[in-house]
Amino acid sequence: MRFEEAYSGNVFIKSGSDYDEADAVIYGMPMDWTVSWRPGSRFGPGRIREASIGLEEYSPYLDRELDDIRYFDAGDIPLPFGNAQRSLDLIGGFVRRILSDGKIPAGMGGEHLVSLPVMQEVAADNPDLAVIHIDAHTDLRTDYEGEPLSHSTPIRKIAEQIGPRNVYSFGIRSGMKEEFEWARENGMHLSKFDVLEPLREVLPALAGRPVYVTIDIDVLDPAHAPGTGTVDCGGITSRELLASIHEIARSDVRVAGFDLVEVAPVFDPSEQTVNTASKLFREMLLGFVK
């Protein structure tokens, strides 16, 4: 079955209609089955797409416009409500198809656990993979209340697969003491509170390597993005996050895949969060798809 037949719904602005011609494939992962606080991120992908209609197609930051790149929006992956493992399996199979076709996976969440099968598939395709993780939370737990499949565990699980020294977390301001200790003891790079300056210091060491970029919208201060499931005060500004995306885009890393997760529109009736997320995703597309 072709993607055009399998998935439907709104598409991100200027999406091409030909999967075969695309260099990157956008897809939604509408899952929030394991959240520890407020559900609602399963509605994020659809609302980000809707907000994209109001975007300009040109980025003055990167001097590129959406017509300069080729991407296809496959819509949301149909996921079985409440079944976390089956949902992760379906996401992994979808991304495996994209990678086998030589395309860059560009995902929208959904809770952060949806990033795990994507990172695993990209790592299988790129043995030297590094992960750039931008988030308010460590996501380094082994489980949450005894459940290993949780949005608080994906970074721990991918770190155990590719090695903690290949995971670089930025903007972290919340987590258990044991998570910070585990990162330190295992040589994982974890920058607390800030993103842009520590990212600039790290990127030269990643030159030439494939990188997966995963951004949790809650790295932003709630003043900039209240529409998320686990808000945490003291975050960065949207301007700093945009600058961080551009820093990655202008570096010598090869972005092998990326996602933006944890947008929960129901908690922001002003629609500020979905509009911010939509612009961030545009910049990720223009910066990461060469």
UniProtKB/TrEMBL annotation:
Q: Name the job this protein performs.
A: Catalyzes the formation of putrescine from agmatine.
Q: Which reaction does it catalyse?
A: agmatine + H2O = urea + putrescine
Keywords assigned by UniProt, alphabetized? Hydrolase, Manganese, Metal-binding, Polyamine biosynthesis, Putrescine biosynthesis, Spermidine biosynthesis
- Gene Ontology BP terms: putrescine biosynthetic process from arginine, via agmatine; spermidine biosynthetic process
What general EC class does the enzyme of this chain belong to?
A: hydrolase
Q: What is the protein's given name?
A: Agmatinase
Output one GO MF annotation: metal ion binding
How is the cofactor bound, as the UniProt entry phrases it? Answer: Binds 2 manganese ions per subunit.
Q: Which InterPro entries match?
A: Agmatinase-rel, Ureohydrolase, Ureohydrolase_dom_sf, Ureohydrolase_Mn_BS
Q: Which residues bind Mn(2+)?
A: 112, 135, 137, 139, 216, 218
Q: Which SUPFAM superfamilies match?
A: Arginase/deacetylase
Cofactor(s) the record lists: Mn(2+)
